[in-house]
Amino acid sequence: MREPQQVDVVVVGLGVGGEEVAGRLAQAGLTVVGVERRLVGGECPYWGCVPSKMMIRAANALAEGRRIADLAGTADVRPDWTPVARRIRDEATADWTDTAAVDRLTNKGVRVLHGTARLTGPGRVDVDGQEFTARRGVVIATGTVAAVPPIDGLAGTPYWTNKEAIEVAELPESLVVLGGGAIGLELAQVFARFGVRVTIVEPGERVLSREEPESSALAERVLGTDGVRIRLGSRAEWIEHHDDTFAVHLSKGGPESGQRLLVATGRRGDLGSLGLDTVGLDPASRYLPVDDRMRVGDGMWAVGDIAGHGAFTHLAMYQADVAIRDILDQGGPAAEYRAVPRVTFTDPEIGAVGLTEQQAREQGIDVAVAVTEVPDSSRGWIHGPGNDGFIKLVADVDRGVLVGATSAGPTGGEVLGALAVAVHGEVPLTSLRHMIYAYPTVHRAIQSAVAQLT
Questions:
Q1: pLDDT per residue as tens digits for the range 52-105
Q2: DSSP secondary structure letters along 346-369
Q3: How many CB atoms neighbour CB 264 within 10 A?
Q4: ∠12-16-21 over CA atoms, to 5°?
Q5: pTM (2 d.p.)
Q6: Cα-flanking dihedrals φ and ψ of residue 315, to 5°?
Q7: CATH number of this structure's domain 341-453, picked from the four choices 3.20.20.100, 3.30.390.30, 3.40.50.2000, 2.60.200.30
């Protein structure tokens, strides 16, 4: 048998978090092997954040063009998907090749392997027959894949996940979307604005069920304006596919049909093939149990989706920094999650940070709430068509600080930055009340909301 190759660190999974860990550790002088069984860079640059926002940018441009009649004259707006698909292939994904990402890492000193990694014991990793022993340890960053529910008739059909939706070169006439979360809503609005007949099927009583009820109501209203039908409280029970048409039979009401079916029902980790049992962990786990230094155990760390704190690129990068500092014995702040920001990039954007009102009450916090409407602000009134949105603040009365906030509106994700700082830094409400807010801006609506709390 060949002797295992000795390295300092093996990084299993080179999505955004794993790539950050591998690159920075190599730049710090460690010998690093990075293993990826798909594309280096992960889901975000190829089938997630980057190309989907290109699609959203294009769809929003169409919507703005259609608003010209109310603001500045006339415009002949004709949707064309061709430049969108071309831009995704040429600018975002390089036709779904990872050469640039691999070069980025190898130039930092990382040895990149495309293959399947499996733990064979503490600090030991097999990559398609090559054995490595990691002196410092192993970092797991294998991310998640689309979760496809076991609906009768679904398996074997040409349904879409986010990957097929991003890669589409020619739009269908109609689309049924399973799932009313962020991914489902964003893609539904994009396709609807390009003329696709879209129906969303959501088994819950509202879309964006993890966000504030006001966010759900706003999303349902604006999607309806774009022509999207939403079926709430009804679950897909079985599916037929014949002659390029899907029929989705529901638990309540009649079936929905579409030329294509998009499954957007969440994400799941795939930990069963990692050999977790060889290091005393349960391979059936949904997530890896990490501490506040991202340690799973002695000589093992995990970052990103599989750490169980949320499937966000920015969170994976944050956790990567915590793990890197721990591996290099640099100290610094431990991981904490009281102010995790999140944005649903519909139009209007719906940003949120920290706790919702319900979550705060469930934690026994003495809660005060304030809501102000963006159209009632000066900038919202000036903006005119497309100005829908609101600011909602959730305050801890006893401590006099914000514990959560939502910023929905034309620039909801950007306005969220100020609220994220307030929640993260536990800025006193009195300080927020007496700040100077630029006029006329959307973020000035925060001042109006704070005034209701102080």
A1: 999 999 999 999 999 999 999 999 999 999 999 999 999 988 899 999 999 999
A2: SSSEEEEEE--HHHHHHTT--EEE
A3: 25
A4: 60
A5: 0.95
A6: -75, -40
A7: 3.30.390.30
